[in-house]
Amino acid sequence: VQLVESGGGSVQAGGSLRLSCATSGFAFSSYRMNWVRQAPGKGLEWVSSIWPGTILYADSVKGRFTISKDNAKKSVYLQMNSLKPEDTGVYYCTAGNSPIISPRGQGTQVTVSS
């Protein structure tokens, strides 16, 4: 399983970013794919998941973030709008039914300033 996140950066509150996760080494189209994040000094927090027929969001991001996937490109995305300072952290994509402990990539840093 290989996962490579990209697309992070620094934005002001209210801005947008689109994260990407390129994958290889497993049957992507049937897998549950997740985004989790880690704020400075805190543990991993589940953000969103997608698998055939289902999309889920944490309450903290519902209405602002949109998860999507492209099976042909074996990639999953996270469109983040109306970003808040509390969205700051390292964002990881994970592959599997346990978002927090499933294999993840190296992460991409998102910094939102007020």
Structural description of this entry:
This protein has no helices and ten strands. The chain is an all-beta fold and 114 residues long. It has a six-stranded mixed beta sheet, with no helix packed on it.
Computed structural class? mainly beta
Number of strands: 10
Question: What are the segments in which pLDDT stays under 50 over at least 5 consecutive residues?
Answer: none
Count of helical stretches: 0
Largest sheet: number of strands, sense, barrel closure: 6 strands, mixed
Rg from Cα: 13 Å
Mass-distribution shape: globular
Query: Roughly how much helix do the residues carry, as a percent range?
Result: under 10%
Strands side by side in the biggest sheet: 2-10-9-4-5-6
Could you give the order of the helices and strands?
EEEEEEEEEE
What percent strand? over 45%
Average residue pLDDT: 96
In whole angstroms, the N-to-C terminal distance is 37 Å
